[in-house]
Predict the structure.
Amino acid sequence: MTTAPTRPLFSSRLGFIMAATGSAVGLGNIWGFPTQTAENGGAAFVLAYCVLAFLLAYPALMAELVIGRHRRANIVTALGGLNPNATLRLIGCAAGLYGVAIASLILAFYSLVGGWMIAHTLQPGIELIASTVNISADLSTSVEAGTTWLTTQTPWRDIIFCSLFMTLTVGIVAAGVGRGIERWSTRLMPTLITLMIVLMIYVWSLEGAGEGLRLLLVPDVSRLANPALLVSAMGQAFFSLSLGVGTMLIYGSYINPDASLPTTGAMVTAIDMAIALLAGLLIIPAIFAAQHLGIVIYDEAGVLRSGPGLIFQTLPALFKTMGTIGQVVASGFFALLTIAALTSSISMLEVPVAYLEENHHLSRHRAVAIASLSILSFSVVIAIYFNVLFDAVVNFTTEYSQPLLGIVLCVFAGWVMRRDHLLDALGGSDSRLFNKIWPWYVRFICPLLIAAIFIQNLRT
Ligand code: PHE
């Protein structure tokens, strides 16, 4: 084992759970999940998602945690050192480097989106202040121009706010595993859940919300036969649990040696799923409440507006109809998305940082500086060539690379890692049944199922 004497650890099992759910719960849950649910016919998607999350994503999460805990190293060293065979070492290192690159690429587009969230948090707040204090007509025109600038997508706005978001991420990661990642995840996660529940109760009190609840809760089972739905549900589950890029692996390497992994992993999966459902219960009723107020919720083609149209047009239009309180709600809503994005972005940055620290012997500060500046330069390129690059980077990383790396990680845990190491890393005595089934499951079923859905994706 390559145990460095000074390697940091999360202080407790709860600390790990906070950090890992902080990583898992992000824009994928609060924006991606409700959007995909709306696009894929509601409850049928929710059902497919829940089944795939436990059947595929959870066992794949376990593969990452087990490898991380056993090797106590970043993804490159961990995969490269699972087996002494030279070819396997080479493949492991290459796959690990690919994971580091994908985590960095995801952060490059994710921090752009995080920046949008900050801009949208500021806009209603500034409007609110401007409307309550007495300002001259001239100043009020400039305030209006300023707030319009904040909500209009331009490369400059994107670059400025992406840098701000990245600065927050850097600040937390530079402080280290315990004092940065764990401490901030523990602070921000309860804030996020409280904000969500308050917003949800508010939305439910609006007229029209009930129709959204029906879409979310009553499944149209015929849609389950649609392979595209399964592909989307699997992609969503992998993205949401931060799988395939070494995030969970590195967090697993910081886990306290006494914690039993199967229950801990199951808790992370369950919390991630519960928060996605909570987001669905907040956003989908909000869409229908908006419709009730006369806001157009379908696009020209008659399809429910989702994606950016939903978050940046439908919902803000709903908030606008509520007067002053609407501006507070709008600010709270985008603050929620910013917080969720931040607890995820820190986990993405930790992947290249841990690699640079451990394999290139850089200090943490230097590793953070190099990784974040390289990623930020890529974000700038995406912001400038937005129309060409944004969707391409999102698809390449999340739809193709994450499931592919997911297969590699399952194969490494199932075939390359020694069985006694595997069982030893699982730990705990409460996991006997799990220890019997999972090693076999991760060997055969997981890679085959992911591959089957992945190939289906290539064909559609
Ligand atoms: N799980 C995060 C979300 O749902 C995204 C993420 C992907 C985080 C990959 C880390 C690594 O938004």
Summary: Residues 23-24, 26-29, 106, 239-240, 242, 245, 247, 344, 347-348 surround phenylalanine (CB under 6 Å). Residues 1-5 have pLDDT under 50 and may be disordered.
